[in-house]
């Protein structure tokens, strides 16, 4: 059975950054990637210095090419289904291909996935509907936009944020009422609120054109921002008995070490909240440095 110094699970920016750093530290690393990273649906990635506007596919291809320079890094395109600790204190990783691997350390960098209150949103997500104004606000500046969200706190936050890029805003709550305070605050800025349930989104090839309500109204909008809920795509942290806080965030020190010795976390997985490519990559680097230092101390 193959044995590694560290197995990195997840081929997003956090996992790729960690694998590169560990490879350069002469560690034997396996990076598991099943091509489910969240940003694969978008047209371009923004805000990563020297790579602004790059497509997610190009970003990942460049990173994978860089990993090839380090012979101790293996990239395995498999889905991990089970991680468990052996009596030897090594971790056993099993995949959907019925293959098993051993490792001294595990880095969880599997990211998160969106869940939408309206299934049809996914047809437009990454093309004309987005979740991060810092990533995609520039491309939608000054356009007639929609804010799609059901929670009042989320609506208030996202609307105020997007107002920085476009003041032509309309809010759609999908049947959920908002407080008088929010109504008055938005009305002062000529932001119209629609509280009727959404019947259907209209558009072509992922480009939003209008939003139809159950009242029969059909409001023209050319794009917008949505507030999804986010979930971890697996229960690895729970399987490994990592401690979670009251918000279901995985508890860890500032360098990615969880409450379970040998298990580390990086990227969006920790907080179940979205992050930029640059922040996720930086967290992957920090976790890799922590892993390498722990290996040095244990073996010296």
From TrEMBL:
Domain FAD/NAD(P)-binding, chain residue ranges per copy: 4-284
Keywords: Flavoprotein, Oxidoreductase
UniProt cofactor(s): FAD
One Pfam entry name: Pyr_redox_2
Bilayer-spanning residue ranges: none
InterPro entries: FAD/NAD-bd_sf, FAD/NAD-binding_dom, Ferredoxin-NADP_redctase_2
Claim: Flavoprotein is one of the keywords in the record: yes
Any GO molecular function: oxidoreductase activity
PANTHER family: THIOREDOXIN REDUCTASE 1-RELATED-RELATED (PTHR48105)
Subunit structure: Homodimer.
Protein's UniProt name: Thioredoxin reductase
Species whose genome carries this gene: Lysinibacillus macroides
Highest classification ranks of the organism: Bacteria, Bacillati, Bacillota, Bacilli, Bacillales
